[in-house]
């Protein structure tokens, strides 16, 4: 379960940073909100990069399936990227209501995405990818 | 599983499927309010009498609750359980029409005590509900990798089928088409499966997924998410058999109440531990709902240990209804804005209204206050027979549902407006 464990940790970390940013917006501290939101965006995009460039290709190679789960996950990454752009705009304009509204959509989108990865995709990776390749993949992701 | 591509919001049914059921649920709530106000002014026997109880219970259970829950299932089965319902729009329409007509016939049957209407309501409700549930059951049963949610939905749907079966039997008995042996026992089993099985288990299995997802909470402990729904379902079966065999069911009722208290306490704790700082109205609806579940189940528990006055039993019914409605409202105010935003932005409308533009959290907050007022006003109704209290309580109930109805219609209107007048980008 090394893949699931490592990636789940990253999801949890992003959740924490996101919650910090949301709290700062509620408190009206937009300086801190901006700083935390940028951290969230960076971490999330980096996590996506690890998946799209390392984990998903390995999964696709091992299973020979490029049309299945990874296609759905990539599509959802695009949706999240779009929302990150809009949220950055709301922070810039110090628009509290718009930010909180987008944050709501973002969390539902991201949480259901992460759940599917943790319960299904990562679990499948851990089950189907041979141990040595799995360790290599993990190292590559950590190095990114 | 994934291979069907089912596990994606991409796979979600069109918004009309969900809205049609939600709007119907709210409309039946308004109807209930009208009926209650009308009954307040009629004789004492009418308010709290046998016919009155039947009508109120079934507007609530079938008109309101079943509508909301079928809508939620049509939406959530594809997303949560990876179940693909083919041609959802058509199926939803058929189920919806049969349900609405069936409930209306049933209400006529109760009030006129007419065997003709009993038969027709049995036909419509039976065909509508027994058409919907196997469609869903079959798909849920074919899942290989069960999550705690999908397994729970299986037991909830199973309970629904059983409750419907017993209900049809009773309708036919009341209409004079069946001799009605074991009527009292079946009635008790019918209520247990409908309330604890269908309503209770469905809410629990949805919460296993949704509480974590909406509020970013720690996971439910494995014992609960794995075994809760199964255990409750088995106990309900055992209770039914004991009823038929004429054996006392107190111990089973006590265990059931304890299980639900444990579930509610754990859910409250999840919410307390949530990572997201927001305390919007939906969080409060969840807290209130779980609090009411604990109160209601504690009353049930006590009722099985000491001899209980009829009024306190009534109170435990009111709290259970309060629980179910609170959770329904908590879900609706999150799901509907999300779906409107989600579907529109997926269709390429750059100006898709954001969640807060669809239904602003302030509207949900106002509804929460009205809901609390409504529930509080019903407390004295259980104990006192004063006209003005009944009218106020009924009026508050009507306003509460009308408020929801208005915002659901408005959300649908905004959806159609965007589709009609906003620019769409193909991608
Ligand atoms: Fe991902
Ligand atoms: Fe991920």
Structure description:
The complex is a heterodimer of chains A (144) and B (427). By secondary structure, chain A is mainly alpha-helical. Chain A contains five helices and no strands. Chain A has one domain (2-143): nmb1532 protein domain like (Four Helix Bundle (Hemerythrin (Met), subunit A), Up-down Bundle), CATH 1.20.120. Chain A is elongated, with a radius of gyration of 16 Å. The mean pLDDT of chain A is 92. Chain B is built from 13 helices and no strands. In chain B, helix 10 (310-346) packs antiparallel against helix 12 (361-383). Chain B has a single domain, classed as Cytochrome c oxidase-like, subunit I domain (Cytochrome C Oxidase, Chain A). Chain B is 80% helix and 0% strand. The A-B interface holds A 15-16, 19, 22-23, 26, 65, 68-69, 72, 75-76, 79, 82, 97-98, 100-102, 104-105, 107-109, 111-112, 115-116, 119-121, 124 and B 1-3, 5, 7-10, 79, 145, 147, 209, 212-214, 216, 275-278, 334, 337-338, 341-342, 345-346, 354-357. One fe (ii) ion (FE2) binds at residues 48, 51, 73, 77, 113, 117 of chain A.
The gist of it:
The complex is a heterodimer of chains A (144) and B (427). Chain A has helices at residues 2-27, 30-63, 69-92, 96-128, 131-143.
């Amino acid at each position: 379960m090394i893949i699931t464990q490592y990636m789940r940790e990253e999801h949890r970390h992003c959740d924490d940073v996101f919650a910090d940013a949301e709290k700062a917006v509620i408190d009206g501290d937009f300086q801190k909100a901006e700083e935390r939101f940028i951290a969230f965006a960076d971490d999330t995009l980096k996590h996506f990069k690890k998946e799209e460039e390392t984990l998903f290709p390995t999964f696709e190679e091992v299973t020979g399936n490029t049309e299945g789960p990874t296609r759905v996950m990539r599509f959802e990454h695009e949706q999240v990227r779009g929302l990150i752009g809009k949220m950055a705009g709301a922070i810039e304009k110090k628009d509290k209501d718009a930010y909180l509204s987008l944050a709501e959509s973002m969390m539902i989108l991201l949480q259901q995405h992460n759940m599917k990865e943790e319960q299904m995709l990562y679990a499948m990776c851990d089950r189907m990818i041979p141990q040595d390749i799995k360790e290599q993949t993990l190292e590559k992701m950590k190095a990114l | 599983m994934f291979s069907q591509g089912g596990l994606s919001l991409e796979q979600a049914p069109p918004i009309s499927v969900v809205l049609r059921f939600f709007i119907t649920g709210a409309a039946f709530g308004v109807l209930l309010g009208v009926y209650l106000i009308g009954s307040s002014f009629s004789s004492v026997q009418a308010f709290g009498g046998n016919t009155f109880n039947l009508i109120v219970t079934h507007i609530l259970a079938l008109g309101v609750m079943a509508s909301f829950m079928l809508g939620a299932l049509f939406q959530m089965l594809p997303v949560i359980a990876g179940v693909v319902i083919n041609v959802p729009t058509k199926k939803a329409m058929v189920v919806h029409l049969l349900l609405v007509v069936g409930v209306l016939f049933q209400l006529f049957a109760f009030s006129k005590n007419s065997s003709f209407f009993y038969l027709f309501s049995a036909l419509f409700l039976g065909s509508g509900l027994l058409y919907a549930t196997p469609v869903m059951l079959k798909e849920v049963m074919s899942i290989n990798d069960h999550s705690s949610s999908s397994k729970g939905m299986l037991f909830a749907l199973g309970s629904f089928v059983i409750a419907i079966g017993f209900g049809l039997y009773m309708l036919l008995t009341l209409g004079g088409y069946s001799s009605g042996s074991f009527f009292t026992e079946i009635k008790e089993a019918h209520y247990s499966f409908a309330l604890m099985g269908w309503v209770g288990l469905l809410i629990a299995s949805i919460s296993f997924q949704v509480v974590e997802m909406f509020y970013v909470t720690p996971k439910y402990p494995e014992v609960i998410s794995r075994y809760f729904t199964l255990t409750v379902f088995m106990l309900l079966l055992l209770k039914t058999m004991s009823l038929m065999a004429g054996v006392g069911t107190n111990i089973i009722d006590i265990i059931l109440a304890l299980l639900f208290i444990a579930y509610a306490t754990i859910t409250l704790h999840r919410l307390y531990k949530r990572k997201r700082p927001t305390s919007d109205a939906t969080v409060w609806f969840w807290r209130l709902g779980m609090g009411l579940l604990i109160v209601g189940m504690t009353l049930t528990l006590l009722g099985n240990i000491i001899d209980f006055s009829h009024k306190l039993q009534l109170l435990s019914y009111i709290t259970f209804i309060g629980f179910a409605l609170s959770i329904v409202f908590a879900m609706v105010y999150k799901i509907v804005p999300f779906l409107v935003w989600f579907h529109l932005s997926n269709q390429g409308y750059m100006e898709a209204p954001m969640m807060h533009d669809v239904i602003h959290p302030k509207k949900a907050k106002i509804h929460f206050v009205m809901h609390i007022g409504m529930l509080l006003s019903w407390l004295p109704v259980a104990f006192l027979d004063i006209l003005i209290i009944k009218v106020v309580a009924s009026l508050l109930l009507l306003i509460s549902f009308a408020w929801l109805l208005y915002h659901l219609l408005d959300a649908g209107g905004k959806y159609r407006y965007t589709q009609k007048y906003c620019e769409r980008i193909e991608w």
